[in-house]
Amino acid sequence: MTELLYLRDAYLREFDARVTAADGERVALDQTAFYPTGGGQPHDVGTLDDAPVVDVRKEGDVVWHTLSGPAPAVGASVHGVVDIEQFESFGALTVRPLAAGERVSLDLASLDEWGDEPSVREAGIPPSSERGRAARRRRRQERKA
């Protein structure tokens, strides 16, 4: 069983864990801050002891981390780092806090390009409409500038 650290702290970026199982380039850990693919959300990326994590899947109550390279041995201690670039993206910040049971609080004044749609005002998350996607693209470009 893998303890899901992101359920207690949605903003956790680094953690230490122990390898509980290995299968080729996949490892299972006793705990993880990596969010696995699921619910229409992509998995987190980052590193385990400097080895890139290229896939994260939950199978039953175990989270498997696929590495780009050989897996550490069972029983080994590893240091995990969640990629901050993806973590700070809009998509990651919507799923992680929701997974942790928090309500996403957005600056609704900055969402005026989406209008007064009830889903934005009431739920605090953007609509999945083309207008919503276009507004998110504009905001990402503004942050990069």
The number of domains: 2
In total, the number of strands is 8
Number of contiguous helices: 4
Kindly report the spatial arrangement of strands forming the biggest sheet: 2-3-7-6-5-8
Query: Could you report the average pLDDT, rounded to the nearest whole number?
Result: 76
Determine the N-to-C terminus distance: 43 Å
The largest β sheet comes out as: 6 strands, antiparallel, barrel
Name of the top-level CATH class of the largest domain: Mainly Beta
CATH fold-level topology of the largest domain: Elongation Factor Tu (Ef-tu), domain 3
Helical content class: 10-25%
* Low-confidence spans: 102-127
Q: Please state the structural category.
A: alpha+beta
CATH-derived architecture of the largest domain = Beta Barrel
Overall outline: elongated
Rounded Rg: 17 Å
Order of helices and strands: EEEEEEEEHHHH
Beta-strand content estimate? 25-35%
Structural features, described:
- With 145 residues, the chain is of the alpha+beta class.
- It has 2 domains: 3-82, Elongation Factor Tu (Ef-tu), domain 3; 105-144, no CATH class.
- The protein is 24% helix and 29% strand.
- The protein contains 4 helices and 8 strands, in the order ββββββββαααα.
- The chain has helices at 84-87, 90-99, 118-123, 130-144; strands at residues 3-4, 14-23, 26-29, 31-32, 46-48, 51-59, 62-67, 77-82.
- The strands form 2 sheets. A 6-stranded antiparallel barrel has the order 2-3-7-6-5-8. A two-stranded parallel ribbon has the order 1-4.
- A hairpin with a 2-residue loop joins strand 2 and strand 3 (26-29).
- It is elongated.
- Mean pLDDT is 76; it is low at 102-127.
